[in-house]
Amino acid sequence: MSCGGCSGAVTKALSKLEGVDKFDVSLANQKVTVDSTTLTETEILSAIQKTGKTAKVAGQ
């Protein structure tokens, strides 16, 4: 994420995703943290990738 539009797109996508308990989008750190007890990592990554952004699990 390199701009406010990018973080806004990710925020919008995660806000609409059913099963997300909470999330934090940090443009400064270029990181997104998502808490969910029902969604898999794959489902969360897919929702973010649909915005056109590259997403991966931290450490991978």
From TrEMBL:
One of its GO terms (biological process) is copper ion transport. One of its GO terms (molecular function) is metal ion binding. Belongs to the ATX1 family. It comes from Mortierella alpina (Oleaginous fungus). PANTHER family: COPPER TRANSPORT PROTEIN ATOX1. The keyword ATP-binding does not apply. It comes from the Eukaryota. Keywords: Chaperone, Copper, Copper transport, Ion transport, Metal-binding, Transport. Pfam families: HMA. The keyword Manganese does not apply. One of its GO terms (cellular component) is cytosol. This is HMA domain-containing protein. PROSITE patterns: HMA_2. Residues 1-56 form the HMA domain.
